[in-house]
Amino acid sequence: MSSPVLSMQSINKTFGGIAALTDASLQVEPGEIHALIGQNGAGKSTLIKVLTGYHQRTSGEVTFEGRAFEAASPRAAQEAGISTIYQEINLVPQRSVAENICLGREMRRFGLLDWPGMRAEARRLLARFKLSIDVDQPLSQLSTATQQMVAIARAVGFSARLVIMDEPTSSLDDREAQVLFTVIRGLKAEGISVLFVSHKLDELYQVCDRVTIMRDGRTVQVSRIDETDKLTLVSTMLGRDVARTEGRTTGFGAPSRAPGEIVLRANGLSDGRHVRRVDLEMAEGEIVGLTGLLGSGRSETARLIFGDTQTLSGTMSVAARPYHPSQPADAIRAGMGFCTEDRKIEGIVPDMSVADNMMLALRPTLGRSGIVDEARYRQIVTHFIAALGIKCTGPSQKIRELSGGNQQKVLLARWLAMSPRLLILDEPTRGIDVGAKDEIQRLIRSLANDGLAVLMISSELEEVVEGADRVFVLREGLSVADLPRDGLTEAAVLSAMAHGVGHD
Amino acid sequence: MRRKTNWGQMLASYGVVLALAALILFGSLRYENFLGSFNILSVLRYNSMFALISLGMCFVIMTGGIDLSVGSVAALGSVVAAYASPYGLLPGLAAGVAAGMLAGTLNGLIITRLKIMPFITTLAMMLAASGTALLLARNQSVAVSYATAFTELGQGNLLGLPVPALIGAFAYLVGSVVLNLTSSGRAVLAIGGSEDASRMMGLPVERITFLVYLASGGLAGLAGVILAAQFGAGQPIEGVGWELFAIAAVVVGGTLLTGGAGSVVTTLAGVLLLGVVFNILNFENGKGWISLSAYWQSVIRGLFLLAVVLLQAHLTHRVAGGPTVADTTDSLQP
User: Fold this and answer.
1) Is B197 an 8 Å CB contact of chain A?
2) Which of A94, B32, B136, B156 is the most buried if burial means most Cβ atoms within 10 Å?
3) Which CATH class for the B30-330 domain?
4) Between residues 301 and 320 of chain B, which touch chain A (CB distance below 8 Å)?
């Protein structure tokens, strides 16, 4: 094998004493399409940012094209031949294709810009990928896929030797993705290497040569993609031994009642993008797990159910009556609550008190002609602080001073105060310490035992396997498995994530 | 390669030129002396100050910023120029422009180094420059010297054309070349389009942003010089509301307030449009059928501005929602 174009060895990176990368490594050969995969927080982005000069490494060796390499800034990395194409495309939407390709290295004649020359250059670069688009068009008028091609053409124009693509297909449809792959293969043919970050396993098999898997800031496996099956990819990524013996590690405990009436039924849900065909069914008193790899459409499905985004096709019913939410208020009226994945952005209002945060959703119904009934308000808040065991100095403490677990309980209380019959919890225990996690899980079970239907989205396998009474597995926007509680194992869920139903 | 003419966008960009032509046609048919050389030259002479500050404002807005200080900086420039006018035309000119550039330098440094929002920074400068002008002028007009050629800058003619109009035309020519034919000009648009992307592309974001405020200050100072020369005195209390006129002209000229797209030529058309509206209302008053006060003129200008912004928003939406994936992927077949 020839010498690698990029070699990163023993890379360590700490942020304020916390290790983000521990002895991570990555090696890319010339003309190779190399996949980099891992769960959220596995260290992929940090590794890329260290390479592109966005972060400086704490220790470790990097060589690029045979020489020791250290980029001081993204610009320096670009000049050295490493171009990054981010998920959010880093081009200027209002400007023309030609400008976007040539900005920063404009051609001049007699000291002034040589527009004909730049247009020709842009056309020439695009033609290398068999693309013929009007280079005078503003970028914003092109589809996302075409914009990505322009970004690639720009990278090639800067004589990139390594192009990093961060989830390039996340906003592309199948046909556009195929065009992108053709372009990527074209790069390979010219000897340019590509580092391809994606969560869509099928894609890796279509374009990539080798794969590096990261977990918890470490490189845990490097192998040829055609010698690695999907189940191995998934289990290595999640750090799960398929044959592992089960042992309870969560606080859920067994249900004390049988599932009751069907609360929600969804058939063939689609949002035309991330959710393509999802079927769900949940009953009273049941915890339904919804899982899948990152990008499989879990949270997007929850948003469809909650009316935050609109369905393109498919039907839903709540308690056997047709249900077409056009906004979250419709979902709330139908008896739903939704604790979103990102507490900090979409959940809490940090500078408001525990009481105010708790009562945000309920408040409109509490008032009589606009005046809040203070006595009832206080009574509800005190009740939930006691019932959920929220540790705070009092209802007026600012919520940002609370721990993650207690913040989560306040958000739970916000919805419970509405007496919902269906609660959607997106990653309910993320970022919460172990003890509090157990407590939240126990709480979820006791809510279900009281008759609440809970839709629990989680990327933590043990949470799903031990907590849920029924699990729906999504893969690339499709429902691929509906697993009952009996015989629910991590192996079965893993296999569904990787292949779809069963062990095909 | 197909080349689709996008009429919506053309209209958004050049509609102002059409509107200007229509207004001029209307005026010329309705009023006898509308196209007379006296009227044309005095419109040009009077509006050249506004044209200059609007040019600076145009560049600032194209980066996605705003410069609220142009009016009071022009007032400051007029006072400083009036004081320097006894030393001659060039010293008067240089002093006024330098005062403006000083204000622009401060704006630019505060915005790029201290990372204070342009709106706040230039609002502070608006107050500071106005106060400084009043202090320097001791709260009254400062007479310029008629012993030197200084007043030629405002009142003179060259080749039969008003000197301030020639200065304005020259400034717009330079501005147009800078915007369209230099990499700095393209960087101005790129920064306004997406500052993050520009930084990732390695463009000198801070330097360009600084230069834009420097230029805006300098042009405001130049407008102040012309103000002093035209009216024979440095005017510390002039310039109130000029920044709004400039913003209006830039927006009417089709430049996006959010930055990233714009044109120097249509900004000039925007200035002339607002100037001609004013001129026509004067003629209309002269006919004696109606009597519109200056207040009504403000209302009418305001309506113009609103109409243009609404049209822009409408057209931009159509453009943004226009081509779908299917429209563009057919050019994408490998």
Assistant:
1) yes
2) A94
3) mainly alpha
4) 319-320
Whether residue A75 lies within 8 A of chain B, CB to CB, comes out as yes
Q: Complex ipTM, two decimals?
A: 0.75
The CA-based angle A410-A411-A416, given to 5 degrees, is 90
Q: Distance between CA A121 and CA A127 in Å, rounded? A: 10
Residue in chain A lying closest to B192 (CA): A92
Question: Which residues in chain A have their CB less than 8 angstroms from residue B199's CB?
Answer: 74
pLDDT of B180 > 60? The answer is yes
The single residue listed with the structure tokens 């896929």 is A145
Q: How far apart are CA A92 and CA B197, in angstroms?
A: 6
Beta-carbon separation of B332 and A179 below 8 A: yes
Beta partners for residue A277, in sequence order: A478
CB atoms within 10 A of CB A88: 10
Residues B12, B312: contact at Cβ < 8 Å?
Answer: yes
Residue among B328, B330, B333 with most chain A CBs within 10 A, to mutate? B328
For residues B95 and B80, the answer to whether their CB atoms sit within 8 Å is yes
Beta strands (DSSP E) in B220-313 are 233-234
Which helix (H) or strand (E) segment holds residue A300: the answer is helix A298-305
Q: Which is more confidently placed, A436 or A7? A: A7
**Cα separations in angstroms, B215 against A193, A310, B164:** 44, 48, 18
Q: Is B86 exposed, middle or buried (0-12, 13-18, 19+ CB in 10 A)?
A: middle
Element (H, E) at A55: none
3-state helix, strand, coil in chain A (%, to 5): 35, 25, 40
Enumerate the residues of chain A whose CB falls inside 8 A of the CB of residue B12. Answer: none
Cβ(A33)–Cβ(A194) under 8 Å? Answer: yes
Q: Which residues pair with A470 in a beta bridge?
A: A288, A484
B5 in contact with chain A, both atoms CB, cutoff 8 A: no
B2 touching A (Cβ < 8 Å): yes
* B230-275 pLDDT tens trace: 999 999 998 888 998 899 899 888 888 888 888 899 999 999 988 9
Q: How many alpha carbons lie under 13 Å from residue B320 in its C-beta half-sphere?
A: 8
Q: Which two tokens stand for residue A417?
A: 């105060």
Could you tell me the two tokens for A174?
């199948």
How far apart are the C-alpha atoms of A248 and A462, rounded to whole Å?
Answer: 8
Chain A interface includes B183 (CB < 8 A): yes
Q: Is B324 helix (H, G, I), strand (E, B) or coil?
A: coil
Cβ A90–B260 below 8 Å, yes or no? Answer: no
Which chain A residues have a beta carbon less than 8 Å from that of B197?
A: 90-92
**Residue of chain A minimizing CA distance to B194:** A92
In this structure, the dihedral spanned by the alpha carbons of residues A120, A122, A126 and A132, taken in order and rounded to 10 degrees, is -60
Q: How much is the average pLDDT of A376-391?
A: 87
Pairing, β A313-318 against β A262-270: antiparallel
In eight-state DSSP terms, residue A190 is T
Q: Which of A143, A148, A178 to mutate to test the interface with B (most CBs of B within 10 A)?
A: A143
Is pTM beyond 0.80? Reply is no
Please give the residue of chain A at the shortest CA–CA distance from B187.
Answer: A103
As given in the structure block, the two tokens for residue A170 are: 């996340």
At A481-490, the pLDDT tens digits run 999 988 888 8
B1 in reach of chain A (CB within 8 A):
yes
- The count of CB pairs under 8 A between chains A and B is 117
